[in-house]
Amino acid sequence: YANETEQDLAAQVAKLSEQVAELQKQADSPAISFSGRVQLDYNWFNGAYNANENGSSGSDLFPRRVRAAIDSEFEHWDHTLLLEFAEGTAEIIMARVRYSGFDNGLRLQFGKLREDISLNALTSSNNISLIERSSLADTFSPYFRWGASAYQYNKDNGLRWALGVYKNDAFGSDGEDDSGKLALAYTGRLTWSKTSADQVWHLGAWHSERDMGGNELAARVARGELRETAVRLVDYAAGGDVVALDSLRQSGLELAYQLRSLTVEAEYALRTLKTFDNSSLLDGTDHSGYHLSVSFFPGGQQRPYSAGSAVFGQPKDIRNAWELVARVSQLDTANAGQGTDVTTYTLGGAYYLNPKVKFMANLMHSSVSGAGQQALSGEEDSGTGFAARVQYLF
Amino acid sequence: YANETEQDLAAQVAKLSEQVAELQKQADSPAISFSGRVQLDYNWFNGAYNANENGSSGSDLFPRRVRAAIDSEFEHWDHTLLLEFAEGTAEIIMARVRYSGFDNGLRLQFGKLREDISLNALTSSNNISLIERSSLADTFSPYFRWGASAYQYNKDNGLRWALGVYKNDAFGSDGEDDSGKLALAYTGRLTWSKTSADQVWHLGAWHSERDMGGNELAARVARGELRETAVRLVDYAAGGDVVALDSLRQSGLELAYQLRSLTVEAEYALRTLKTFDNSSLLDGTDHSGYHLSVSFFPGGQQRPYSAGSAVFGQPKDIRNAWELVARVSQLDTANAGQGTDVTTYTLGGAYYLNPKVKFMANLMHSSVSGAGQQALSGEEDSGTGFAARVQYLF
Amino acid sequence: YANETEQDLAAQVAKLSEQVAELQKQADSPAISFSGRVQLDYNWFNGAYNANENGSSGSDLFPRRVRAAIDSEFEHWDHTLLLEFAEGTAEIIMARVRYSGFDNGLRLQFGKLREDISLNALTSSNNISLIERSSLADTFSPYFRWGASAYQYNKDNGLRWALGVYKNDAFGSDGEDDSGKLALAYTGRLTWSKTSADQVWHLGAWHSERDMGGNELAARVARGELRETAVRLVDYAAGGDVVALDSLRQSGLELAYQLRSLTVEAEYALRTLKTFDNSSLLDGTDHSGYHLSVSFFPGGQQRPYSAGSAVFGQPKDIRNAWELVARVSQLDTANAGQGTDVTTYTLGGAYYLNPKVKFMANLMHSSVSGAGQQALSGEEDSGTGFAARVQYLF
Question: Could you give the ipTM of this predicted complex?
Answer without folding.
Answer: 0.95
